[in-house]
Design a protein that fits this description.
By secondary structure, the chain is an alpha/beta fold. It has helices at residues 3-17, 50-59, 72-84, 103-109, 134-140, and strands at residues 43-46, 62-67, 93-98, 116-120, 126-131. It contains five helices and five strands. Strands 1-3-2-4-5 form a five-stranded mixed beta sheet, with helices on both faces. Helix 3 (72-84) links the parallel strand 2 (62-67) and strand 3.
Length: 144
């Protein structure tokens, strides 16, 4: 499956699994009918360019995931993230980068293996790299 299609499936699965906050019109809100809001959730976006990536990093905790559509470990990671997205640290922005197409980004972070995650500092520099680990690895490497 082409990587852009698999990422679309990933994003669609995450979108379907993420509840949205909503509020009721003022006329329907009463003391017996509270307004519900959803808990904060992690965000997933596709890598666009380094300028956009640096802007995300400046706003908060950002992790780049180097994904390859032909990689069985990457597909397993995406499957687990789809199934357990609610368990992912809600402070994270996960940026999915195409391992086969983003040679410059791989070189910048020294990436030599797909299914690699990179935690960025507020300036967009790598502070931690790890391979695989799914939700547990993502949370363990971004909790501080």
């Amino acid at each position: 499956m082409p990587s852009h299609l698999l990422r679309s499936v990933f994003f669609a699965g995450l979108a379907l699994g993420m509840p949205t906050a909503f509020s009721q019109p003022a006329s329907e809100t009463t003391a017996t009918k509270p307004v519900e809001t959803a808990a904060p959730r992690a965000v997933v976006v596709d890598f666009e360019n380094e300028t956009a990536l640096n802007a995300l990093a400046a706003k908060g905790k950002t992790v780049v995931f180097f994904f390859a559509s032909w990689c069985p470990n990457c597909r397993a990671t995406v499957s687990e993230l789809n199934a357990r997205w609610a368990d992912v640290n809600p402070d994270i922005t996960l940026v999915v980068a195409d391992y086969d197409k983003e040679a410059g980004l791989k070189a910048k972070f020294g990436i030599t293996y797909q299914d690699t995650f990179v935690l960025l500092d507020e300036k967009g520099n790598a502070t931690k790299l790890w391979n695989g680990g799914g939700v547990a690895g993502l949370n363990a490497n971004t909790s501080f």
